[in-house]
Every structure is written in structure tokens, then in C-alpha cells.
Amino acid sequence: MSTKDADLMQARKFGQAKLNIATLGGLRAFRSYSSAQDIFRDRARSHGSVAARSKRALDVSVALMFLVTLAPALLLIAVLIKSTSHGPALFRQKRFGTNGHLFEIWKFRTMYMTLGDRHGVRQTWDNDPRVTPLGRFLRRTSLDELPQTLETCP
């Protein structure tokens, strides 16, 4: 087993995201990773284009299987939203992420269109009259977040 593999196994064991990438004059250089996926992506790149293409093919295959599996649930929820209240089934919301990066997410609509806050400033509270009965269920089970999974597909 190489030093790289041993360090990777140790990092996984202790939940650390570090990998030995070089030994220069007895000094080890480490690179920090934000996730295990970054480690594998970096390792795939370092092993040449065949490994990188294989990883990409695996990523796309898993994403497509996930999408095919979720499609009936997504469609059913969208139809239920449209049949129980007027307006679109999905809406976009702007959020701030890491380092203040602004991004948009898609969510299932859980509020009545006529009672919702256009600017998204007002927070919801228990028994909020703006939330539809189906919306309460979707929020409680976090199913209103499902459309965000489509944004993670490669």
C-alpha cells in the first residue's frame, strides 16, 4: 500500500479530509479537502483521463438512476400541489451560501399564492394561515426540498 493510500485510509478512519500528496526532503505536504468527493475527484484526475472519464460516467449514471427513481414522487407532488391550490407547483428562492455567494434554489410551493410574501422576508410560524394543508405535510417531511436534488445532478 502506498503512502497516499495509507494516509487516505487514516483520514477516513478519523473523519479528517486530508491526503498526503507529496514528500519532499522528508517533509510531507498535505492538501485539505472539503469532502470525500473532492478526494476521489482529485485522485481520479491524478490517475489520467481514463479514470476521470470513468468517474464522470459513474456520477452521471448514479444521478440518472436517482432522477428516474424520484421522478414519480416529484410528479405526484407537483400534481397534488396544482390540484389543491392555484399557482405554479415550483418556485425559486434566492439564498446566500458560503462567502456570501448568492444562488437560487427550486422548491415546491407550500403557501397560497394570494397570501404568500413576495419578497420572502416574513418567516412562517406554527399554524401559519398562509401554508396550505398539503404544504404543512411537505414541510414537516421536508419533501418541499426535493427539487433541489435536481440541481446537484451533473
Summarize this structure briefly.
With 154 residues, the chain is an alpha+beta fold. It contains five helices and four strands; from the N terminus they run H-E-E-H-H-E-E-H-H. The protein has two domains: 46 residues, no CATH class; 94 residues, no CATH class.
Fold and architecture overview:
The structure is a single chain. The radius of gyration is 22 Å and the shape is elongated. Helix content is 46%, strand content 18%. The protein has helices at residues 3-13, 36-46, 49-84, 133-141, 148-151, and strands at 18-24, 27-32, 90-96, 102-108. It starts with a helix and ends with a helix. The strands form 2 sheets. It has a two-stranded antiparallel ribbon with strand order 1-2. Strands 3-4 form a two-stranded antiparallel ribbon. The chain is an alpha+beta fold and 154 residues long. The longest helix is centred in the middle third of the chain and has 36 residues, at 49-84. Mean pLDDT is 76; it is low at 15-30. The protein has 2 domains: 1-46, no CATH class; 61-154, no CATH class.
